[in-house]
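Why do we care about 3D structure at all? Because function follows from shape, and shape follows, mostly, from sequence. That is the central idea of this module. The next example makes it concrete: a single protein chain, its amino acid sequence, and then its structure expressed as tokens.
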Amino acid sequence: EQVIGESDFGPFLWSREAGTSFLPFPPGSYAYAISNSGVIVGTYWNATRGKNQAYRWSRLTGFTDLGPDFAEYALAWDVGDDGTVVGYMLIAGVPRAFAAKDSDVFEIGVDWSIALGVNKCGIASGFSNSGAVMWVPPGRSLSGAC
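And the structure:
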């Protein structure tokens, strides 16, 4: 059982066994989700680029900037147990859902879409200007186990 949160001192991780520990993230970081394996995602202020960018962090791999560089802003909302990260980015001021797997970041939604959750199979859910949406990775099915 692990919980992430925010404080005046930045993002923290809490567990019953270890208590509270502050995470080694850059200033201006926010943590939004944690997977069962301890991967944390969110957004942080990239001072070099002058914008917020999505990130993924784990004790094993450290802090990974997901960018993407072409977006004006990016925020990672959730991470699945298969390592898929989802969220949204702004392109020309318009939100667009994205997914990231390993170091690859790709758009999955149309204009005015945001991915809010992802399951253990990498199937994302969210919304667009036309309502609720599910994004299914190529080669995956909504029926049966993944």
